[in-house]
Specification:
elongated, mainly alpha
């Protein structure tokens, strides 16, 4: 294994460890602050739930692919520390914006659909276009 491949592997290993640590730290804080105890009896039950692990895997793959696309692993040996800091900061900012916009779009879609349903029900009930049970059934 060459020196460059070894450095690349070290970067990748440290990134995997730090992304995993941040994900589990966030979920631990979330368990403690959002009172998840009524759904999960223990912290380990919450952290190692199948759904949580799949989300964690997607989280890990998202960040690793973003770092790879930014060229973070291309030349691990001949990097200046300033350019590495700028690349890392830019990648993290772009990733946070992507995640924020994705979550905003999801929540906006949910709120928009809910709002449309409420408006439909209000106008149908107010206009008495059909009996109440029929409107609710539709």
């Amino acid at each position: 294994m060459t020196r460059e491949q070894l450095h690349r592997l070290r970067y990748l290993a440290v990134d995997v460890c730090s992304i995993t640590a941040s994900y589990f730290s966030y979920n631990t804080l979330r368990f403690l602050t959002e009172k998840q105890g009524r759904l999960y009896s223990t912290l380990s039950g919450y952290l190692f739930d199948t759904k949580s692990l799949w989300v964690g895997l997607l989280y890990l793959l998202f960040w690793l692919s973003l770092f790879a696309l930014s060229g973070y692993y291309n030349k691990p040996v001949s990097k200046s520390r300033i350019s590495e800091l700028i690349t890392t900061t830019t990648s993290v900012l772009v990733g946070v914006v992507i995640v924020f916009l994705f979550l905003l779009a999801i929540f906006d879609l949910i709120v928009g659909v809910s709002n449309d349903a409420v408006n439909f029900l209000n106008s149908a009930i107010g206009a008495k276009s059909a009996p109440f049970k029929v409107i609710i059934a539709v």
